[in-house]
Amino acid sequence: MTRRLLAFGIILTVASVLYAQENKSIKISGYLIDNACASAHVKDADFGDRVKKHSTSCALMPNCEGSGYAVFADGKLYKLDKAGNDSAEGLLKDTDTKNGVMVAVEGTLEGDTVHVTKLTEVKTTE
């Protein structure tokens, strides 16, 4: 009887750990920035303001474009997966916004990476 309870407890613990690691669906809105510029300035006190003013032309420079993209939302930096990077690159090439591209992102969160299912520009009045 004790062995069965112990085995049941172990199975229950493993199942709850696996359930807790499951990807979580998210919807966030924030500002798009390339990972090269983000990693260079993320510890700056004015990082949030810097992201809001980040230029589209910088994000499309070869080194910046090659580094991939992230979204700064609610004081946190969310990296985009390959599908998100491809969507972000296309959006940056097509937008008329010169500085501070705001986006809405839908997907699942795994660690600090968003597996993007939808990425769209949000036009701001700023």
Describe the structure.
The protein is an alpha+beta fold and 126 residues long. The chain has one domain. The protein is built from six helices and five strands, in the order αβααααββαββ. The protein has a five-stranded mixed beta barrel. Strand 2 (69-73) and strand 3 form a beta hairpin. The longest helix is centred in the first third of the chain and has 19 residues, at 2-20. It is elongated and about 70 Å long. The chain starts with a helix and ends with a strand. The mean pLDDT is 88.
What are the defining features of this structure?
alpha+beta, 44% helix, 126 residues
- The number of helical runs is 6
Kindly report the spatial arrangement of strands forming the biggest sheet: 1-2-3-5-4
What is the mean pLDDT?
A: 88
Shape: elongated
> Low-confidence parts, pLDDT < 50 over ≥5 residues?
none
CA radius of gyration is 19 Å
- How far apart are the termini? 67 Å
Number of domains: 1
Query: What level of helicity do the residues show?
Result: 40-55%
Percent of residues in beta strands? 25-35%
Structural class: alpha+beta
